[in-house]
């Protein structure tokens, strides 16, 4: 599934963001369709994270428009909780997992279910965790009573992605998802992204410095250069030369 021809799930139009005197995002525009993987690439300081944080709600843009399923997000509404309610979740590079807690606790972070409003419903948490892992075809996590720090980097990343999609999100932002992983774990995470996209129609915004990974996963690539989304490539238009030239020169 690559969402071609479909109505965009997300439209970002001419967003800007400054921090003091620094114009981190001068003109950011792109769209994202259902079941699409769109990569955002660019050199250091090009504005990738700022753009992603505007979409996740962590930064309110100074100007520009964001529409989700055709509905504009007002500046007053623009927040992480509103974007989550609209189906947008982020998996950060540092995963934002709690290392000494189990996979079920991490999956339910901030959403711990309680029986009679009192006792933590661990049975429900374990059941949901098993379901999520099954849905993701993650078969390597056996013991859910172990702290997550005892799992491999790839397994932890699977739990983090599982958490992002477990609550019905339509769009998952992956910020350098495999920067800290070895080749096998990277392959495991890439397979997971493709499976989730194919089986659930989830859309992904992938921020990665790994251009080989970007070329493997992305249906489209947006190049940011000095705070401007300067180029867009479709999967079949991309060559390494064109991509490197666009990243370094913005053309
Ligand atoms: N909270 C902030 N306060 C001040 N300046 C910021 C802030 N966030 C980003 N910037 C600046 O905005 C510019 C764009 O940063 P951003 O993190 O978006 O780039 P990036 O493309 O993600 O870079 P990298 O690949 O190095 O992570 C940089 O000059 C950065 O120093």
Brief rundown of the structure:
With 251 residues, the chain is an alpha/beta fold.
Layout of helices and strands:
Layout: E1 8-19, E2 22-33, E3 37-41, H1 48-56, E4 63-68, E5 71-72, H2 80-85, E6 88-91, H3 103-107, E7 114-115, E8 119-120, H4 122-135, H5 153-166, E9 171-175, H6 183-200, E10 203-207, H7 211-217, E11 220-225, E12 228-234, H8 240-249
Parallel strand pairs: 3-10, 3-11, 6-9, 9-10
Antiparallel strand pairs: 1-2, 1-4, 4-5, 7-8, 11-12
Helix pairs in contact: 5-6
This protein binds adenosine-5'-triphosphate (ATP).
Write a concise keyword list for the protein shown above.
251 residues, 27% strand, alpha/beta, 6-stranded mixed sheet, Rossmann fold, binds adenosine-5'-triphosphate, 4-stranded antiparallel sheet, globular
The ordered H/E elements are EEEHEEHEHEEHHEHEHEEH
Helix count from the secondary structure assignment: 8
Helix content: 25-40%
CATH topology of the domain at 8-96 and 170-249: Rossmann fold
CATH architecture classification name of the domain at 8-96 and 170-249? 3-Layer(aba) Sandwich
Structural class: alpha/beta
The CATH homologous superfamily of the domain at 8-96 and 170-249 is termed: P-loop containing nucleotide triphosphate hydrolases
First-to-last CA distance: 29 Å
Low-confidence stretches: none
Strand neighbour order, sheet with most strands = 6-9-10-3-11-12
Organism: Shimia abyssi
Keywords: ATP-binding, Nucleotide-binding
Protein name: Monosaccharide ABC transporter ATP-binding protein (CUT2 family)
InterPro entries: AAA+_ATPase, ABC_carbohydrate_import_ATPase, ABC_transporter-like_ATP-bd, P-loop_NTPase
